[in-house]
Design a protein that fits this description.
- The protein has 394 residues and is mainly alpha-helical.
- It has a single domain, classed as Na+/H+ antiporter like fold, CATH 1.20.1530.
- Helix content is 78%, strand content 0%.
- Helix 7 packs parallel to helix 14.
- The longest helix has 33 residues.
């Protein structure tokens, strides 16, 4: 693999990403949407971006996800957890249950995916919202609706990463019996306990030193290293790496750290740079045949998913007495992002998943739902003042 060719490809991608960021800012739409579309267009360009190995892209994707999850969770305060945690957890659980029960059935009949487990896998992946998209959308704007959305996006990200791989483990067993699901309960609980323990353990060690020590050169590196170390350690101990990083980020955001604002800005800038590469390759690597039949069926399925999310939001105990317009805004504002992109990359490398002839349909649906969800969030942001009496910018 020629190093100069790799650097050339990366440089072209970053230059394109910067230009897209400027255009997206001018148009007031999420840059992730344009990056995916640009990735699709770059498939027709003379540059051979396929020279970038799959393992390289997966590594960059995971690194990006780790930094974005850490950055997002570090901006949440403990006092916000008391106010919004239970409602956000309730909405998250309802969305997951409704999707697994009903979106999976809709996928089975509308898309003709005959593997029940693949339908469950897709429904699980679609249960989350992207922290970076939500936080970028609302930025410094805040009210009870936006705060609920921010915290929900942090909570449901580990679930999006966890569910598909639990289902893949069941697929490896080759059985859909009740015992297959029961056998996964203990490993599921183990992943949660290990993740929380790992995040707290690394946080106590690293942040104790960062309370008193700050260096422009070393401190940012310590922050990146601690986030990656937390993810890797949790994964190697059969825990959930994303949840572990979330716990680490919450600790970082709620204890005193020297020059915390500067460190948060650094992690945000770094993750954004990697995000450009990831989302362009989401569009570049995943081949979708944009037939009218596929578009119409996927749009109907996307509409069903939005209705299910509205029912989950409407059914939850929103103690803040939110209006119907507030709940509609919350229901429709569910952008998919980096976690879903990483899951797609990892699924494409999994032999059990790709062995199914219907795996291509699931991957194509994931890409289309990424585009649909980002588009709907961008459109909704234009009417935010009507729904939540707050002007937000994409």
């Amino acid at each position: 693999m020629d190093p100069v060719s790799i650097l050339t490809s990366l440089t072209v991608i970053l230059v394109v990403g910067i230009l897209i960021g400027i255009i997206a800012k001018k148009l007031g739409i999420p840059n992730m949407l344009l990056l995916i579309l640009m990735g699709i267009l770059l498939r027709q360009s003379p540059f051979d971006f396929s020279i970038l190995a799959d393992n390289f892209l997966i590594t960059i994707s995971i690194l990006t996800m780790v930094m974005l999850v850490f950055d997002g969770s570090s901006r949440l305060k403990i006092k916000e957890l008391d106010t919004y945690s239970m409602v956000s957890i309730e909405i998250t659980l309802l969305v997951v249950v409704f999707n697994l029960l009903f979106l999976s059935i809709a996928t089975y009949f509308i898309m003709g995916v005959k593997s029940v487990l693949l339908c469950f896998l897709f429904a699980g992946v679609m249960s989350g919202t992207d922290p970076s998209s939500v936080l970028m959308l609302f930025q410094t704007k805040s009210n009870k609706v936006t705060d609920l959305l921010k915290f929900e996006s942090i909570i449901n990200t580990p679930i999006v990463v966890l569910i598909p791989f639990i289902i893949l483990d069941i697929m490896k067993l080759g059985s859909l019996e009740v015992t297959s699901f029961v056998d996964q309960i203990l490993p599921f609980l183990q992943q949660i306990v290990v993740a929380i323990g790992t995040g707290v353990f690394i946080g106590l060690i690293v942040f104790r030193g960062m309370k008193k020590f700050y260096s422009e050169q070393i401190s940012p590196l310590m922050l990146i290293t601690s986030a990656l170390m937390t993810y890797i350690l949790a994964q190697n101990m059969d825990g959930n790496g994303v949840l572990a990083v979330t716990v680490l980020g919450l600790m970082f955001g709620n204890i005193y750290i020297k020059q915390k604002a500067s460190l948060q800005e650094f992690s945000y800038m770094l993750s954004n740079s990697f995000e450009i590469i990831v989302f362009i390759f989401v569009g570049f690597l995943i081949s979708v045949s944009f037939t009218w039949e596929l578009i119409v069926r996927s749009l109907v399925l996307f509409l069903i998913m939005q209705v299910l999310r509205f029912l989950a939001v409407y059914s939850s105990h929103l103690h803040d007495n939110l209006t119907l317009k507030n709940k509609i805004f919350m229901a429709l504002n569910a952008p998919k992002g980096i976690a879903v992109a990483v899951v797609a990359f990892l699924l494409m490398q999994d032999k059990v998943f790709t062995s199914s002839p219907e795996s291509t349909t699931i991957i194509n649906l994931i890409l289309l739902f990424l585009i649909y969800s980002l588009t709907s969030s961008a459109i909704l942001s234009k009417f935010s003042k009507f729904f939540i009496h707050l002007k937000v910018e994409a």
